[in-house]
Every structure is written in C-alpha cells, then in structure tokens.
Amino acid sequence: MIASIAQSEKPLTPELRPLQPMEALRRSLWLVFQAAPKELRSMAGLNLLLGTGPSISFWLGKIVIDETSRLVGQGVGQDAITLLLAQSTLLWAIVGSIGLNLVVDSVDSVATSVYAALRDRVRGYVESQVLQKVANFHDIALFESPPLLNVLELTQKGIQRLQQLSFIVAGTLRGIFAFVPSVALSLTVAWWVPLLLLASSVPSTFAELKHHKKSWRVEETQAGANREMNIYNKMLSGGSYAKELRLFSLQGIMLDRWQRQFNDLFTRMQQVRQEGAIAVMLWAIVGGLAGAIPYIYIVLGVVQGRYTLGDLALYTGILMQLRRSVYILISNIGNIYDVTLATSPIFQLFDLQPALHSGDQPMVPVEQARSSDRGIQLRNLSFAYSGSDKSILRRVNLTVKPGEMVALVGENGAGKTTLAKLLCRLYDPTEGEIRWHGQDIRQVDLHELRSRIAVVMQDYARFPATLRENVGWGFLPQLQEDQALQAVLQDAGIDQVVKELEQGLETPLGRELEHGVDLSGGQWQRLAIARSLLRLSQAELLVFDEPTAALDPKNEHEIYSIFKAIARDRMAIVVSHRLALAKMADRIVVLEHGEVVEMGTHDELMALGDRYYTMFSRQASSYL
C-alpha cells in the first residue's frame, strides 16, 4: 500500500502577517499613487498655488498698506485716480492682489473636482484589487474563519480610510506649500518665532497620535461585533429572512441585539473620543498661548516704530498662516497615522497566501492512465477543520472508477458533505491523499482540476442575474449557445417553465433585480442542476450533494434517473439522505462519525442487517 502523505503540520487556515505602521504607510501612499497618478499631479500643482497664494497676498497687502499710508502722510490733494495711476508700485500691488485672489478662487473650485475624481479613482482601484484577491483566493477558509472574516470586515473600513488618505495628501501638500513661505517671512520678524510655534505644537501632536491609536484599537477589537451587527442588519432588511422574521415575531429580538452591539461599540468609542478631546484641547491652549507671544512682540514693535502698519498686517497674517499650516501638518500626521492603522488589514489581505496551493502539473488524460490507476482513490484520508481537535473524517479509503456511481449516506454530521468538498479540492486533507488517475490532486493545476468537475452543492447559488447566465455560467464557452442551454434545461426538467417566461432566457431572476422573477425552491434547484449539466462535455467527476432536496419524491426519482444516465463513463458521487434513491447507485458507502463503516450494493448492505438496513427500514416505515 502506498504510504499516506501526512499534512498534519500544514496550516488549514491562512496565516495573517502583522504589519508595522511605516510599512503600511509606505504601501498606502504607493497604492494611492498607483490608483490616480494623473489626479495626484494635478492636485500637487493646484495646492502649490493654493498654499503659497496667501503668503504672496499678505506680502502684496503690506505694500498696499505702506504705500497708502505714505500717500496719506504726504497729504497730497490731487485726484485720487490720477494719483493712483502715478504710483506704479501701489498700482501693481493692487492689481497683483486682485488677480491673485481671482486665480486662487477659481483654482479652489477646480480643486474640488480634482479631489472628487481622486477619491473615486482610489476607491475604484482599491476595491477592484480587494475583490480580485478575494475572488481568486483558492481557500474557502477565508469565508469560514472568524479571524479572516474580521480582516475582511476591517478591509472595508480600510478602503474608506484610504479614500480619506487622498484628501490628507492634498491637505498635507497645501500645508507644506503654505508652511515654507510662512516660515521664510516669519524669520524676518525674529529667528525664534517659527521655532516657538513648532515646539508648542509637539505635545498636541503626540496627544492626537495616542488618541488615534486608541480609537483604532477599539475598532480592531470590535471587528467581530461590527460583523455581528451586519448579520443582524441583513436579517432585518434582507428578503431571505423576511417571512419567518414576521411569522415568529423576531423583529424585536434582532433589533435589540443590533442595538446592544451598537451601544456597546459607541460607548467604547465615545470614552476614547472624550479622553482624546480633553488631552488635545489642553495642549491646544498651550499652543495658543505660545502663538500669542510673537503677535504681542510685533504690536510692541509697531508702537516703538520698528515696524510699519504694513508690517503689522503682513506679520499678523503670516503668523496666522504659519499657525494654520502647522496645525494642518500636525493634524494630518494624526490622520495619516489613523489611516495607516486602518489600512493595515488591506495589505494583510493582499499578503495572505492560501494554505491550499495550486499544483503545476497537467492532468493525465484517463486514456493515458494505467488501468489500475483509473478513477479516484482516497488513501487513509483524514480531515479536521482549523482550530478544532475533532476530526470530521478518519482514515477513509475509497476508490471510484469511471462509469461508477457511488452514494454517500449517513446521519447528519457524518462527514458526507466535507468529503464531497475535499473531492472538489475546496480543502486539502489533514492527512492522507486523494489521487486522480494516479496523480495526487495537490500536484495538478487547480483550475484544470476544477474544470473537470460538475457540481451541484447542497447550498447552491441563486445568482441575481438572467436565466441565461444562471445556467450558462456553468460553462462559459456555451453561454451564448441557446441550443445547448435549452438541452440542459430540458434534462433538468425545467424547460417548460422557461417557455412560459415572456423574456425566455433573458428573464432576470431574483426580486432584487428590476422586473426580476423569483422561482420556487424546486425550480431554483433544477436550474443549479442544469448549470452543472452544461459542463458535462469536459467533466470527468460528478458531485451531487443533496441535489434534489427541494424536489418531491416523484421529481426526485426523475432527476436521479437523469444522473444515472449522464454518469455513464464518468465518476459520480451522490450525497443523499433519502436512501430509496441510493438503490440506484452502483455502490453505497455508509459513513458514521467520519469513518466508513459499511460499503456495498443496496442488496448486500440490506443482507448485512446492520447500519444501512436500520436506516433504510426506518425511512421506509415512514411511507407505510
């Protein structure tokens, strides 16, 4: 016997890599640049003008005030317009000031449009990257592990914060462009002025950073609560739960649970906000007092004759501009830190590698495989979900040959559906191996492997799309082949329903779509079957997990007859609770607590008089 390949040390759940804040910041900025390079360049140019404009305007205002004061002091009595035209310095200062204000005002309106474009570009690009990562992730553990689901929840918040990063970058650029000329002009007052303003702002910066860190820690630790709120939200507002919610009067319970989670989260956040607001406010008062010192110094200088009225106007405006630019920069440091904390889950998701890896070998065609290798062989197969010590499957050995239909039966929790998922390689076994025509399925290309499988899962999808797409997505090359679609719809026994729909194959399905038509549970199930049948041209393995659960016994028998016919020359696995239909299988495998306890034909197992006999007799008695 070939020794089983142990995988007990291989993690079944992908591992998250922690990110340092600086790495998250660097990658966030690069992501924003990748998303909207054109908008960023435009924004830089606009902010250069918007940032330096006020300082230039203050300087021109100083010239206007000084020149006007000089003329008033001379007491010249000639016509004001003639006098103004004769003063070239004053004239150009006025024209320059008016022109600059007009340009800044017009540019400000253009900047609004650029910011909106930047925001939308960033959101579209990042959401696209996230969706691509999630959609192409091999591991369905991404949707079953609470820590990974929390990362997905935080990723949505991160996308919103990353949009804010574009505005923060814009604000930071404007702050820098306003800060540099403000510092240069304030140095003409005294060398210590910009140093004093900067030094007085440092404590409030650290207070704000600490506040943002605490806020994010609350959001991070409450990701599970947020996810639970979304679940209750979906139950209250989604159509899937609407009937039972009302019939059992569950609205109050769900609303209460949602409200409780919200109140708890709000209370925690409010406590952090209040603590942060008090700390920042106290240090802001200290900064304000420090900013008053240069202002008093200039006023005294004007009184003593060291500065002119124009200097007072200039320096008053410059000091305000300097304080504003320092505040913008400090505030943006806190905002950038906040964004960095919130965007870390995005890059954790990007870095996440599936525990289930695709092989690189092409699949061996059945005709090239040795006769002894043909089919699927399960060797000492065991499986346990991540974080659980309980094995769902234990040492399962089973072979399914081409042209053979095998029925998996057993009580709920026996491991039947898990085994079906392992055959589709939605998971990898914890121990043991699955061989397909002699090849370990972990070594072959995952996309090619899944293309050889036609599946109807117990929790089949009801796509909010057209009827054509609901069927044609089973095999995309035949999406527009009406004849092929009609054939599988007929095989699934739902072609008559389609004929009664006014738009035929183009009928939108699902009440959430405009003019959408909803189907019964049985009709949806037949569509799922038709979707699977469309792939038969290349499928070697058929996996049907409770494919007729929504059908009545008469229609169920009809569908199983179809399965029996199409399974010819193919390997077929059927999971069913209804043992009367297991009689149609070539072999029946009875699972109990994850182990194969019986195997054989219906007649052989009935003759044994053990588990299968008991199960079959119990079900048969309910029809008498």
Protein architecture, described:
The chain is α/β, with parallel strands linked by helices. Among the domains are: 21-351, ABC transporter transmembrane region fold (Up-down Bundle); 460-539, Rossmann fold, CATH 3.40.50.300. It has 20 helices and 10 strands. The chain has helices at residues 21-35, 37-74, 80-86, 88-135, 146-186, 192-221, 223-237, 242-247, 251-303, 309-351, 416-423, 446-451, 467-472, 482-491, 495-500, 521-533, 553-566, 579-582, 602-608, 611-621, and strands spanning 376-383, 393-400, 405-409, 431-436, 439-440, 453-456, 541-545, 571-575, 587-592, 595-600. The strands form 2 sheets. It has a 6-stranded mixed β-sheet with strand order 6-7-8-3-9-10, sandwiched between helices. Helix 9 (251-303) packs antiparallel against helix 10 (309-351). The two termini are 47 Å apart. Residues 1-11 have low confidence and may be disordered.
Assign the CATH architecture of the domain at 21-351: Up-down Bundle
Poorly predicted tracts of residues: 1-11
The largest sheet has its strands arranged as: 6-7-8-3-9-10
Q: What is the residue-averaged pLDDT?
A: 79
Number of helices: 20
> How much of the sequence is in beta strands?
5-15%
Which structural class matches the secondary elements?
A: alpha/beta
Rg computed from alpha carbons, rounded to a whole number of angstroms: 36 Å
Task: Tell me the CATH topology of the domain at 21-351.
Answer: ABC transporter transmembrane region fold
Fourth-tier CATH superfamily name of the domain at 21-351:
ABC transporter type 1, transmembrane domain
Total count of strands = 10
Characterize the main sheet: 6 strands, mixed
Assign a percent range to the helix content: 55-70%
The geometry reads as elongated
The run of helices and strands is HHHHHHHHHHEEEHEEHEHHHHEHEHEEHH
Separation, N- and C-terminal Cα atoms: 47 Å
CATH class of the domain at 21-351: Mainly Alpha
